[in-house]
Design a protein that fits this description.
Structural class: alpha/beta
Mean pLDDT: 90
CATH architecture: 3-Layer(aba) Sandwich
CATH topology: Rossmann fold
Strand content: 25-35%
Number of helices: 10
Radius of gyration: 18 Å
Oligomer: single chain
Helix content: 25-40%
CATH superfamily: Class I glutamine amidotransferase (GATase) domain
Length: 305
């Protein structure tokens, strides 16, 4: 089944070039199907890029999805045209009374700040609380994972001596979990972050379960509330060239940045990356949609609580 996306969203044409089946809302309205409603709170600066990355990994499910985009009112994006934001995004306040089968909250470039110093902390805290009663299952990604763990469970973050940057092997700690259905014993996950959460802090919270981690990159996936919340410290949704773009951008700015680990062929940027995470990325998002959204959400979406 296709994804239903807002009319004229740029990702539609981009993904059709990759033979990914998407349809706009005008066509979908003619179908008598109850699609799963998925809302994406996109906090990344390059919104169109992030939209496309997430839609790509959501597209492999046989389920029909209706995608909406949420924004926070207390922050104005400087890297995305205002016309795009007005056309495809709605403020949280306008969506507060709606319910959704699934939600994805992205990372944000605010790691250097304490959580309470983030200008939109009050609003995003409100969204975190709202999601618990208005969404069946929520994926928190990278900074959002750290912020969600801090807000809901008091788990702190810690600065790293050097950026965790590259593609790192991860081990599922309970392969029987539905989120890992079809996974190999080891899978790879892109990371791009300056802070970390620590195993000891998570283990001190009875309601949290570490379900995947890497020897180099540490805790990578934490589950809570039986799968109604997943906190993912990396970026399985990243496209093949995302880390390459970040690396060359920081080099051009003269920032202290090491070459992404386990990424380039023969550790040589000119040879390009080796993609080692795409299959498991598609599988994880498909498993989430199937086992933690579709099979758990009520047919009457208003019954979510």
């Amino acid at each position: 089944m296709p994804l239903t996306l807002p009319d004229r969203l740029p990702a539609i044409d981009l993904l059709k070039q990759e033979n990914i089946f998407v349809m706009d809302t005008s066509r979908a309205s003619a179908q008598d199907i109850r699609p799963l409603k998925i809302v994406i709170l996109n906090l990344m600066p390059l919104k169109i890029t992030t939209e496309t990355d997430l839609i790509r990994v959501l597209s492999n499910s046989p389920l029909q999805l209706e995608i909406s985009f949420m924004k926070i009112k207390s922050h104005t994006s400087k890297n995305t045209p205002i016309e795009h934001m007005r056309a495809f995004y709605r403020d949280f306040e306008l969506m507060r009374n709606e319910k959704f089968d699934g939600m994805i909250i992205t990372g944000a470039p605010v790691e250097h700040l304490d959580f309470e110093q983030v200008t939109y902390w009050d609003e995003i805290s409100d969204i975190f609380a709202w999601a618990r009663t208005h969404v069946t299952s929520t994926l928190y990604i990278c900074w959002a994972a750290q912020a969600g763990l801090y807000y809901h469970y008091g788990v702190p973050k810690y600065p790293l001596g050097a950026k965790m940057f590259g593609i790192f092997p991860q081990k599922p700690l309970d392969p029987r979990l539905p989120i890992f259905r079809g996974f190999d014993d080891v899978f790879f996950m892109p990371h791009s972050r300056h802070t970390e959460i620590r195993r000891a802090d998570i283990e001190a919270v009875a309601d949290l379960t570490i379900v995947a981690e890497g020897e180099e990159s540490g805790v990578s996936i934490v589950m809570a509330r039986g799968g109604r919340e997943f906190f993912i410290t990396g970026h399985l949704e990243y496209s093949p060239l995302t880390l390459d773009t970040e690396y060359k951008r920081d080099l051009a700015k003269g920032l202290p940045i090491e070459m992404p680990r386990h990424y380039y062929r023969a550790d040589t940027p000119s040879l390009g990356p080796v993609v080692t995470w795409r299959a498991h990325a598609n599988l994880l998002f498909t498993n989430w949609l199937n086992y933690y959204v579709y099979q758990e959400t009520p047919y009457n979406i208003e019954a979510i609580h």
